[in-house]
Structure prediction request, 120 residues.
Amino acid sequence: MYSVTFKDHLAHPRNVGEIPDATVVAEETNPICGDRLRLSLKINDGNIETAKYLAYGCPPTLVAGSMLTQMIIGMSVEDALAITRSELIESVGGLPSRKHHAASLALEALATALRMSDKL
Prediction:
């Protein structure tokens, strides 16, 4: 049902935790299922230097956070904002349609964090 990439990120999540001196921290919650994702970013000169996450919820939420952080490290803020739900879902090898909310949650946390960083 789930891809090798999905299973690898679930067994060995990347970038778990928080950044002590983060530029910005954002947390989003899915009000229907209760999943939460907290994203910490260190941004310098418009580029995401590092990213970490904490996730609470279903396995796809954990995997979406892991993959998203890998995708955005080294990206410009503009490029990170352009990541789509479809791209994130594809990067983990696909998700059942009933689990697409996990990718949406991760991207909502990213968008919130990047909007906050723009105001700093």
Observations:
- The mean pLDDT is 95.
- Helices lie at 4-11, 59-72, 77-81, 85-91, 100-118.
- Strands lie at 24-29, 36-44, 47-56.
